[in-house]
């Protein structure tokens, strides 16, 4: 899909995008840069991909840095924020995007697999969100935090118990963060993508039966592109969304209509 030109006034904003090296995170990082933000791109293992995102951001004449960190480890999170702030300044916009998916029947989910999904998808947004919010409060920054959840926060999915539970947790985390941080002038919202074709879903969608089954449940009859999540994030990051907090925005082709 061609890159969209819709923009919001984010000039001078200092954004951190977790899981920003690929897929939805990559598109969000580039979208923020197009709107004038400087961006710290967090990655766990995809150093080359993260470097490519940073290079693309710099093509928009914005400051960018790639920072390796494990969002499930508090010490690693502190190092992430220190490195990001050293490069682009105090963070006033956080996009908690890092996530993983595993597919296993409920009866076959091992504790290790459960932990891997819950740690990344739920502990990560909690740890990074809390650490960033603490710094915002200390500095009097009236910032924005956007959590990337999923339609799986609302709808159960076969063989996705751990994933659905983690994303449901993110939705309640968003509400609680919004409630407790509102008095500090920090807005916390979430975007819930539907089925988007990324590295996380491509293998699953290569099975034509899987693809057709999922398409049959999407009123718009198509699978999304990462770029199609960006507009919702840009809106929530902008001044236009200043009265919104604790909100869930679904970008899903209508799948949650059912």
Automatic annotation (TrEMBL):
Organism: Candidatus Segetimicrobium genomatis
UniProt record similarity statement: Belongs to the short-chain dehydrogenases/reductases (SDR) family.
Residues covered by the Ketoreductase domain: 13-199
Gene Ontology terms for molecular function: oxidoreductase activity
CDD domains: SDR_c
InterPro entries referenced in this protein's UniProt entry, alphabetically: KR_dom, NAD(P)-bd_dom_sf, Sc_DH/Rdtase_CS, SDR, SDR_fam
UniProt keyword annotation of Nuclease present: no
Keywords in alphabetical order: Oxidoreductase
One Pfam family matching this protein: adh_short_C2
Any GO BP: monocarboxylic acid metabolic process
The protein's name: 3-oxoacyl-ACP reductase FabG
């Amino acid at each position: 899909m061609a890159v969209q030109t819709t923009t919001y006034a984010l000039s001078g904003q200092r954004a951190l995008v977790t899981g920003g090296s690929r897929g939805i995170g990559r598109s969000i990082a580039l979208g923020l840069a197009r709107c004038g933000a400087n961006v710290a791109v967090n990655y766990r293992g995809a150093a080359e991909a993260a470097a490519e995102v940073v290079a693309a951001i710099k093509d928009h004449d914005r400051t960018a840095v790639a920072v390796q960190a494990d969002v499930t480890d508090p010490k690693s999170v502190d190092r992430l924020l220190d490195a990001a702030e050293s490069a682009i300044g105090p963070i006033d916009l956080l996009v908690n995007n890092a996530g993983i998916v595993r597919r296993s029947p409920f009866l076959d989910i091992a504790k290790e697999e459960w932990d891997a999904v819950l740690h990344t998808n739920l502990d990560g947004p909690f740890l990074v969100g809390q650490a960033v919010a603490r710094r915002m409060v200390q500095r009097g920054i009236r910032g924005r935090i956007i959590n990337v959840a999923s339609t799986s926060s609302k709808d159960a999915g076969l063989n996705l118990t751990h994933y659905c539970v983690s994303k449901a947790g993110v939705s309640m985390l968003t509400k609680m963060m919004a409630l407790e941080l509102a008095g500090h002038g920090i807005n916390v919202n979430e975007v819930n993508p539907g089925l988007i074709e990324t590295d996380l879903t491509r293998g699953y969608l290569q099975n034509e039966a899987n693809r057709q089954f999922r398409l049959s449940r999407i009123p718009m009859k198509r699978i999304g592109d990462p770029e199609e999540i960006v507009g919702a994030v840009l809106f929530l990051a902008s001044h236009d969304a200043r009265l919104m907090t604790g909100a869930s925005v679904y970008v899903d082709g209508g799948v949650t209509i059912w």
